[in-house]
Amino acid sequence: PYFLSPSTRTSTTPRALLPSPPWTWLRRGPRTQGRLFGGCLTVVARIQGIAHISPSWKDKIMFLESATAEADMTKGNPLARIRSAFADLAARGVFDEIAGLVVGRAYGYNTERERAEYAAVIQGLLCKGRLGASTSFPILMNVDFGHTAPIVTLPMDALAVLDSEKDEFSIAEAVVV
Protein backbone atom coordinates (compact mmCIF):
# COMPACT_ATOMS: atom_id res chain seq x y z
CA PRO A 1 0.00 0.00 0.00
CA TYR A 2 1.26 3.42 -0.91
CA PHE A 3 0.58 6.74 0.73
CA LEU A 4 0.75 10.33 -0.46
CA SER A 5 3.63 12.35 0.88
CA PRO A 6 2.36 15.58 2.48
CA SER A 7 5.18 17.55 0.82
CA THR A 8 5.04 16.13 -2.71
CA ARG A 9 1.47 14.74 -2.88
CA THR A 10 2.94 11.69 -4.63
CA SER A 11 3.80 8.22 -3.47
CA THR A 12 6.69 6.02 -4.39
CA THR A 13 7.36 4.18 -1.16
CA PRO A 14 5.23 1.69 0.73
CA ARG A 15 3.73 2.78 4.03
CA ALA A 16 5.32 1.46 7.18
CA LEU A 17 3.36 -1.29 8.86
CA LEU A 18 2.07 -0.24 12.25
CA PRO A 19 1.66 -2.58 15.20
CA SER A 20 -1.92 -3.79 15.25
CA PRO A 21 -3.75 -3.39 18.53
CA PRO A 22 -6.12 -6.27 19.23
CA TRP A 23 -9.62 -6.08 17.83
CA THR A 24 -11.87 -5.40 20.79
CA TRP A 25 -15.59 -5.47 21.49
CA LEU A 26 -16.69 -2.03 22.59
CA ARG A 27 -20.11 -3.52 23.15
CA ARG A 28 -20.98 -7.19 23.09
CA GLY A 29 -24.34 -8.10 21.71
CA PRO A 30 -26.37 -10.89 20.24
CA ARG A 31 -24.99 -12.79 17.25
CA THR A 32 -26.04 -10.88 14.18
CA GLN A 33 -25.61 -11.00 10.46
CA GLY A 34 -26.18 -8.48 7.73
CA ARG A 35 -24.80 -7.02 4.54
CA LEU A 36 -21.58 -5.02 4.95
CA PHE A 37 -21.87 -1.37 4.02
CA GLY A 38 -19.93 1.70 5.02
CA GLY A 39 -16.71 3.57 4.43
CA CYS A 40 -14.98 6.71 5.62
CA LEU A 41 -16.85 8.09 8.64
CA THR A 42 -16.91 11.74 7.59
CA VAL A 43 -18.04 10.92 4.04
CA VAL A 44 -20.76 8.52 5.22
CA ALA A 45 -22.02 11.17 7.66
CA ARG A 46 -22.03 13.78 4.90
CA ILE A 47 -24.05 11.70 2.41
CA GLN A 48 -26.71 10.92 5.02
CA GLY A 49 -27.99 14.44 4.47
CA ILE A 50 -28.60 13.84 0.75
CA ALA A 51 -31.80 11.83 0.35
CA HIS A 52 -31.10 10.69 -3.24
CA ILE A 53 -27.83 8.97 -2.38
CA SER A 54 -28.33 8.10 1.27
CA PRO A 55 -28.41 4.30 1.57
CA SER A 56 -30.81 2.23 3.62
CA TRP A 57 -29.07 0.97 6.76
CA LYS A 58 -31.81 -1.50 7.68
CA ASP A 59 -30.16 -4.66 9.07
CA LYS A 60 -26.73 -3.74 7.67
CA ILE A 61 -23.45 -4.38 9.42
CA MET A 62 -22.03 -0.90 9.13
CA PHE A 63 -18.29 -0.37 8.87
CA LEU A 64 -16.68 3.00 9.49
CA GLU A 65 -13.10 4.22 9.50
CA SER A 66 -11.54 7.61 10.00
CA ALA A 67 -9.14 9.23 7.59
CA THR A 68 -6.34 11.72 7.87
CA ALA A 69 -6.96 15.22 9.12
CA GLU A 70 -7.56 17.65 6.28
CA ALA A 71 -5.00 20.13 7.57
CA ASP A 72 -2.22 17.62 8.30
CA MET A 73 -2.02 14.24 6.56
CA THR A 74 0.27 12.89 9.26
CA LYS A 75 -2.50 13.15 11.87
CA GLY A 76 -5.95 11.70 12.28
CA ASN A 77 -9.19 13.64 12.35
CA PRO A 78 -9.62 15.49 15.66
CA LEU A 79 -11.89 13.86 18.24
CA ALA A 80 -14.37 16.74 17.90
CA ARG A 81 -14.84 15.87 14.22
CA ILE A 82 -15.19 12.16 15.02
CA ARG A 83 -17.78 12.96 17.70
CA SER A 84 -19.67 15.27 15.34
CA ALA A 85 -19.82 12.67 12.54
CA PHE A 86 -21.07 9.92 14.89
CA ALA A 87 -23.59 12.35 16.41
CA ASP A 88 -24.86 13.29 12.92
CA LEU A 89 -25.40 9.62 12.07
CA ALA A 90 -27.17 9.08 15.39
CA ALA A 91 -29.42 12.12 14.84
CA ARG A 92 -30.43 10.75 11.43
CA GLY A 93 -31.47 7.44 13.00
CA VAL A 94 -28.79 5.31 11.35
CA PHE A 95 -27.91 3.50 14.58
CA ASP A 96 -31.57 2.62 15.15
CA GLU A 97 -31.50 0.53 11.95
CA ILE A 98 -28.17 -1.28 11.78
CA ALA A 99 -27.51 -4.85 12.91
CA GLY A 100 -23.92 -4.23 13.98
CA LEU A 101 -20.98 -1.84 13.77
CA VAL A 102 -17.36 -2.51 12.85
CA VAL A 103 -14.98 0.40 13.47
CA GLY A 104 -11.61 0.53 11.75
CA ARG A 105 -8.35 1.31 13.46
CA ALA A 106 -8.36 5.10 13.69
CA TYR A 107 -5.68 6.75 11.60
CA GLY A 108 -3.29 8.80 13.70
CA TYR A 109 -4.44 7.33 17.02
CA ASN A 110 -1.41 5.15 17.64
CA THR A 111 -0.94 5.09 21.40
CA GLU A 112 -3.05 3.18 23.87
CA ARG A 113 -4.24 6.45 25.41
CA GLU A 114 -5.25 7.91 22.03
CA ARG A 115 -7.15 4.75 21.09
CA ALA A 116 -8.92 4.79 24.48
CA GLU A 117 -10.00 8.42 23.92
CA TYR A 118 -11.30 7.53 20.45
CA ALA A 119 -13.23 4.54 21.82
CA ALA A 120 -14.64 6.69 24.64
CA VAL A 121 -16.20 9.06 22.08
CA ILE A 122 -18.00 6.17 20.39
CA GLN A 123 -18.93 4.54 23.67
CA GLY A 124 -20.30 7.81 25.03
CA LEU A 125 -22.55 8.32 22.01
CA LEU A 126 -23.62 4.77 21.21
CA CYS A 127 -23.44 2.77 24.44
CA LYS A 128 -24.59 5.23 27.09
CA GLY A 129 -27.56 7.53 27.49
CA ARG A 130 -30.72 7.37 25.37
CA LEU A 131 -29.16 5.71 22.34
CA GLY A 132 -27.30 3.13 24.42
CA ALA A 133 -30.51 2.20 26.22
CA SER A 134 -32.46 1.76 22.98
CA THR A 135 -29.92 -0.26 20.95
CA SER A 136 -28.04 -3.48 21.56
CA PHE A 137 -26.09 -4.13 18.37
CA PRO A 138 -22.49 -5.35 18.80
CA ILE A 139 -19.63 -2.92 18.20
CA LEU A 140 -16.20 -4.26 17.17
CA MET A 141 -13.27 -1.81 17.34
CA ASN A 142 -9.72 -1.48 15.97
CA VAL A 143 -10.28 -3.68 12.91
CA ASP A 144 -7.49 -3.27 10.35
CA PHE A 145 -9.29 -1.58 7.47
CA GLY A 146 -9.37 1.93 6.08
CA HIS A 147 -6.48 4.35 6.27
CA THR A 148 -4.08 1.95 7.96
CA ALA A 149 -1.42 -0.64 7.25
CA PRO A 150 -1.75 -3.59 7.35
CA ILE A 151 -5.18 -3.44 5.77
CA VAL A 152 -8.08 -5.88 5.48
CA THR A 153 -10.30 -5.39 2.44
CA LEU A 154 -13.98 -5.56 3.34
CA PRO A 155 -16.23 -6.66 0.47
CA MET A 156 -19.09 -4.19 0.14
CA ASP A 157 -22.56 -5.77 0.39
CA ALA A 158 -21.21 -9.20 1.39
CA LEU A 159 -23.11 -11.13 4.04
CA ALA A 160 -21.14 -10.91 7.30
CA VAL A 161 -21.49 -12.22 10.84
CA LEU A 162 -20.66 -10.54 14.15
CA ASP A 163 -20.66 -12.90 17.12
CA SER A 164 -19.14 -11.47 20.30
CA GLU A 165 -19.68 -14.71 22.24
CA LYS A 166 -17.44 -16.58 19.79
CA ASP A 167 -15.22 -13.51 19.25
CA GLU A 168 -15.99 -13.74 15.53
CA PHE A 169 -16.22 -11.33 12.63
CA SER A 170 -16.53 -13.26 9.39
CA ILE A 171 -17.70 -13.05 5.81
CA ALA A 172 -20.46 -15.65 5.41
CA GLU A 173 -20.49 -16.06 1.63
CA ALA A 174 -18.12 -16.32 -1.28
CA VAL A 175 -17.27 -12.95 -2.80
CA VAL A 176 -15.27 -11.73 -5.75
CA VAL A 177 -12.46 -9.44 -4.70
What report would you give on this structure?
Residues 33-160 form the LD-carboxypeptidase C-terminal domain. Keywords: Carboxypeptidase, Hydrolase, Protease. The chain has 177 residues and is α/β, with parallel strands linked by helices. It has one domain (24-169): LD-carboxypeptidase A C-terminal domain-like (Glucose Oxidase, domain 1), CATH 3.50.30. Helix content is 23%, strand content 21%. The chain has four helices and seven strands, in the order ββαβαβααβββ. The chain has helices at residues 41-47, 79-91, 112-126, 129-134, and strands at 24-27, 32-40, 60-65, 100-104, 139-143, 159-163, 168-171. It has a seven-stranded mixed β-sheet with strand order 1-5-4-3-2-6-7. Helix 2 (79-91) links the parallel strand 3 (60-65) and strand 4 (100-104). The longest helix is centred in the C-terminal third of the chain and has 15 residues, at 112-126. The relative contact order is 0.23. The mean pLDDT is 87.
List the helices and strands and how they pair.
Blueprint: E1 24-27, E2 32-40, H1 41-47, E3 60-65, H2 79-91, E4 100-104, H3 112-126, H4 129-134, E5 139-143, E6 159-163, E7 168-171
Parallel strand pairs: 2-3, 3-4, 4-5
Antiparallel strand pairs: 1-5, 2-6, 6-7
Mean pLDDT: 87
Strand content: 15-25%
Which range best describes the helical content: under 10%, 10-25%, 25-40%, 40-55%, 55-70% or over 70%?
A: 10-25%
Strand/helix succession: EEHEHEHHEEE
Number of domains: 1
Strand elements, count: 7
Largest sheet: 7 strands, mixed
> Termini, distance in Å?
16 Å
Strand order of the largest sheet: 1-5-4-3-2-6-7
CATH architecture: 3-Layer(bba) Sandwich
Number of helices: 4
CATH superfamily assignment?
Answer: LD-carboxypeptidase A C-terminal domain-like
Shape: globular
Low-confidence stretches: none
CATH domain class: Alpha Beta
- The radius of gyration over CA amounts to 16 Å
Structural class: alpha/beta
Question: What is the third-level CATH name, the topology?
Answer: Glucose Oxidase, domain 1
InterPro entries: Carboxypeptidase_A_C_sf, Peptidase_S66C, S66_fam
GO molecular function: carboxypeptidase activity
Protein name: LD-carboxypeptidase
Pfam families: Peptidase_S66C (PF17676)
